[in-house]
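DEPOSITED CHAIN:
***
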Amino acid sequence: MRNHFIHQSFCKAASLWLAMLFFSLSAQAQVTNISGVVNSYYSVIETIPVKACVRVSSTAGLSLTTKVMIIQMKGAAINTPNSAAFGDTSSLANAGNYEFNYICYINGDSVFFTYNLLNSYTAPAGKVQLITVAQYENATVTDTLKAKPWDNTTGTGGVIVLDVVDTLVLNAPVYADSSGFRGGLYVQTGGSCTNLHSAYYYNAATTPTHNGAYKGEAVADVIASQSGGRGAPANGGGGGNNHNNSGGGGANLTAGGLGGGNSSSTGCLATFRGMAGKALSNWNGTKIFSGGGAGAGHNNGGYSPSGGGNGGGIIFIHADTLISNGYKIAANGGRGGNSVGDGAGGGGAGGTIIMDVNTYLDPVTIQSNGGVGGTSDDDVTNNKCFGGGGGGSGGAVYFTAAAPAGSITMTAGAGGPEINRVSATCAAAQPGVAGTDGLSFTNYSYRIASSFASYCGVILPAKLVSFTARVNTKNVVLNWRMLNAELVDYYEIERKNTAGQWQLIATIAAADGQDIYSTTDNSPKAGDNFYRLKITEKSHSVFYSPIRLIQFHDDNTVFSVYPNPATDQISITYHAQGPVTLFLSDMNGRIILQKTISGPSTQLPLPVLAKGIYLLRVNDTVKKLVIR
């Protein structure tokens, strides 16, 4: 009976400590486990710039203050002569335009924004979509985080947008591989040929002759009569022509690779290879694109599908701190389809990745590689030889600061190999060509609207979106984010003193167009520190934030830990008399280690821990420990 009582008391004490611990760390330890598709996508059917408004196909799931991305996926104009100039971009128009904004009002199918639109958009023809930004205080990716695959019918998908106030931990990859523009479809056709199928476009759906395989998808749509053939539409790869020529690779900001050609010595001899997808311009970073889809290979045998690879999607990540744990962030292009005795598919282009991260706690793996062209298997057949698919170009990777340590690749996809070739009976080989390596950019400024929309100001007052507090060494950092910030005159940070009265510690003037603010309390007091934000509008109205608690201790009562981040061992220094008990727990409150230590310094081997954030507690002092 006595043992039962002791166990019950310990459980109650542990539960009480966990409750106190998570209350004291509420501003920095709100961790959300995320996986799968975390964004929602809405097709924009009309833009109304004068009211900073768009009309969408459905508003289900949208709410006020939600941060959103608006992006136009298509709408470029291309030249359409039946010549080598087919698919040259005559104007990007509004294709690739994007920006971030906040929803301030919803009325029927109309969504109004806090800020005026930065860009022009062409809806619905340009496939404009509104995407909700997945926002968290802290987030852990527990299973693969994905983009909804691009759907040209609805004009939605292909994009991951993530906004984490504090720390993003990867325990699984962020994956937008093959989520961008679609590769040319595989179609099996008849085997007839005239050796005159030189045109740059055909209707790819016309069978059984099927003179030109399907082109890859791009920032410019093509009409049905131009859907097939070797001409490359903007950043999409051209399809292989009759007979058994391979598809060209897709492109992003650099060009894809030319598809392999027919080098047979008898029978159908036409060599009209799928042309390479053409490089786009990002207009000094104001435009971003999905990777172009690759062209399909001409296929009449039907032994193996030879469609083109999909392009990579688009990823945007904002976080104060990123712990990647060796998991990759990827928007790679897809591999081209293989063939047996036919033309192979080209590889899709790498997509676009934007990294807005302040601190990287370990080396990253970021990939926006082009897809490899499909393999063409000649099946050891005399006189019949066909080159592999063209490789996709590398994509584009943007960093808002310097590039972090790690592996960052925008490598072009190789041309697909030709195997089981009987060279002695064929003409000179015409192999698939590799795409071109992609591009990376540093000190990039992404597109976020900041000019206040007066129409929205009539509808809603200023609103506090978030207010957080966290310990930084011996200081407390306070961050907040506003909606309709132009209505605010100034902010006051207040801290409760020992007499229980709120004391002003900082005043910050509001700035038009600025919705994110930060300040530091350089002299927190020992013990409990309660903070609140007082917001005074230009109309003289006043409202307050929720209260945040930070427990802070001076060097006479606090313990210190080194190194932090750590791997397998830490050094604990405790500035007090007598032995104390140290607890190590995960962010879900599960106690991993309990050990009695005594000052002044103790070396503490750690158990095998997954990389991430953990909590150390001695008496009432709690610290965050990062394992890398």
Notes: The longest helix spans residues 2-24. The helical segments are 2-24, 454-459.
